[in-house]
Amino acid sequence: MKQFSFYISIVLGIIIIMNSCKEGAVLEDLNLEYGYDYFPLEVGKYKVYQVDSTIYDFDGSTPIVLKSTTFVKEELIEIAFDNEGDTIFIIERFTRKNQTDPWQIKDVWSTKVANNRAERFEENVRLIKMVFPLREGTDFDATLYIDDNFVITVAGESIEAYKNWSSEIQTVNVPEEIGGITFDNVCTVTHTDDENLIEKRYSQSKYAKGIGLVHKEEWILNTQVLDENLPWEEKAEIGYILEQTILEYN
């Protein structure tokens, strides 16, 4: 009987070890597949972007169209803790009009990954940029922390920039060339693609594995010109069009 019990103990021990190994392997596989490396956070990392923008300033009769190009540098300078107890990374943002000009500090933002969400705090706006694990077709609420009536000011005019946002992870691990740089693995997130006769809301971001944001495009526009055949670039009265493209990173 003792010998039988001894053999039973050995068999049970082997089963437990095998199950533990299998569970560990599964957990490791899950960690590898979650996609956190599309939103990497590390102090000392920086990215430089070219930002092309078109701003529409309506004076009551004719919209004034203002086009500009700016260069933006974002650098993760240190870590801190927010009021939710999560580790956040502090972002220093610099701008310059020409690539030969010295960088000028513009503002300080922050970002974090917590509760399977990647978040950015951009001035007084808290946005969810993506959710994990990254899966094509996953829907999420990027504006979870934003009031439905929240407005931003563009050229002195108020506009509901985040109206009718419904975010989706569209593609993952797709090779793409952006800004003359070829990336082997890109994730595309569309936050909104919605329009009617008087409003257009479009926001899409692309992230490269191991790098982060490499491209962003937004169209936040309003008009009272009720012509379906007229392009938005021509009939927009207030709002902006923005394209942000990566140039350099470490």
Question: How would you explain this protein's 3D organization?
Answer:
The protein is mainly beta and 250 residues long. It has one domain (35-249). Helices cover 14% and strands 54% of the residues. The protein has 2 helices and 14 strands, in the order H-E-E-E-E-E-E-E-E-E-E-E-E-E-H-E. It has helices at residues 2-33, 232-235; strands at 46-58, 63-81, 87-96, 104-114, 117-122, 125-131, 139-140, 152-154, 157-159, 167-178, 181-195, 199-208, 212-222, 238-249. The chain is globular and about 50 Å long. The protein starts with a helix and ends with a strand.
Q: Low-confidence parts lasting 5 or more residues at pLDDT below 50?
A: none
* Mean pLDDT score: 90
Question: How are strands sequenced across the largest beta sheet?
Answer: 6-5-4-3-2-1-14-13-12-11-10-7
Overall SS class: mainly beta
Radius of gyration: 24 Å
| Helix-strand sequence | HEEEEEEEEEEEEEHE
> What fraction of the residues are assigned to beta strands by DSSP?
over 45%
Q: How can the largest sheet be summarized?
A: 12 strands, antiparallel
Q: Given the structure, what is the number of helices?
A: 2
Cα-to-Cα separation, first versus last residue:
66 Å
The count of DSSP E runs of length 2 or more, i.e. the number of strands, is 14
Query: Which bin fits the share of residues in helices?
Result: 10-25%
Shape: globular
In the residues, how many domains can be counted?
1
